[in-house]
Amino acid sequence: MSAARRRSVGSSLVGTGTRQQQVNSVDERTRDAVRITGLIKTYPAARGRRGEPPAPPVRACDGVDLRVRPGEVFGLLGPNGAGKSTVVRQLTGLLRPDAGAVEVLGHDLVRHPERAARLLAYLGQESSALDELTVALAAETTGRLRGLGTAAARRERDAVLEELGLAKIAGRPLKKLSGGQRRLACVAAALVGRRPLLVLDEPTTGMDPVARRAVWAAVDRRRSEDGATVVLVTHNVIEAETVLDRVAVLDRGRVIACDTPGGLKSLVGDDVRLDLVWRDSPPLDVPRLAGLAERATVSGRRWTLRMTPEDAREAVSVVTTGPAFAALDDFSLATPSLEDVYLSLGGSGEGLVKL
Ligand SMILES: Nc1ncnc2c1ncn2[C@@H]1O[C@H](COP(=O)(O)OP(=O)(O)OP(=O)(O)O)[C@@H](O)[C@H]1O
């Protein structure tokens, strides 16, 4: 129900006592596009095959609470194995939680998982189901399955393929495309037969920058023109910073922070990050450089330092003069990123992608 419609229903019932309370409680539930409360999921232990040790149970969701507002692009960020896909598979009704509630636009998807198909479009990590079809047929078939008539499905198919730059390869089967092209075709299929909630699990994996930009523009259009809400899984911190309104950081099945990218970054204060890349070995006989070496995280030829802006100014003057500068290949100074937030919150940082 749109906000305008909710307002008109509410105002027509002003003063009717109990019915007003009912409307208020419906209003309360539908104010969030997605409400996830106390979600718990443990994958059971598995017997070891051919003499291998058994796999222990894995608690992939450990009490996850999330609220997503209508029209928001909301991200789940975290390293491999943090539990992001497990959350979205429960959000889409594909996986039953052990405990907790999942509501989408006021519908209880734990009790009624079959309603998910009408409420949301889901792009999972693996999408081999469409592999035998051509790009055009994958999009058209998805539209038909979502209840569009033949003409409407074809109209939407053509519009989406054009929008995502796929018209030229519309006649090719998905299984004969590159990884990035196949992923783009799956995004196209997900967008046909519009749904109020889009749940996209790493939609741009393997795509080149042109395709990525086309996907983000298409997602943004669904939000601005249709009022769609988007839940997006990513472990790409750069994407997270640029496309998301709010982001929940997941680590080991728990939400360790949830805010706007800017709000999260303010958690790490004013510290800046200085990256130094040396041509070969740095001249450690320069005394002030030896001092920096003690504070740096070293990875091959790269030093990374987190410091106050004043210390960074001093460090930059050290590395841009004399023998240090001669030995320097590259350097960059950056304000805090979501990766810094993640690390400062106690995440391991492994598996976060920076492109
Ligand atoms: N079907 C399954 N059976 C057993 N364990 C599983 C299963 N699926 C996922 N897991 C485990 O649950 C945890 C969370 O996995 P999940 O796929 O939700 O993480 P993720 O954050 O989506 O990771 P990625 O970024 O790699 O996609 C991991 O430890 C994973 O190994």
UniProtKB/TrEMBL annotation:
One GO MF term: ATP binding
All copies of domain ABC transporter, residue ranges: 34-277
- Bilayer topology annotation: Peripheral membrane protein
**Which SUPFAM superfamilies does this one have?**
P-loop containing nucleoside triphosphate hydrolases
Top-level taxon of origin: Bacteria
Which coarse location class describes where this protein primarily resides? membrane
Write down the InterPro entries for this protein, in alphabetical order: AAA+_ATPase (IPR003593), ABC_transporter-like_ATP-bd (IPR003439), ABC_transporter-like_CS (IPR017871), ABC_transporter_ATP-binding (IPR050763), P-loop_NTPase (IPR027417)
Residues of the region (Disordered) are: 1-28
Q: Which UniProt keywords apply?
A: Antibiotic resistance, ATP-binding, Nucleotide-binding, Transport
Matching PANTHER family:
ABC TRANSPORTER ATP-BINDING PROTEIN, DOXORUBICIN RESISTANCE ATP-BINDING PROTEIN DRRA
Record protein name field = ABC transporter ATP-binding protein
The organism named in the record is: Streptomyces daqingensis
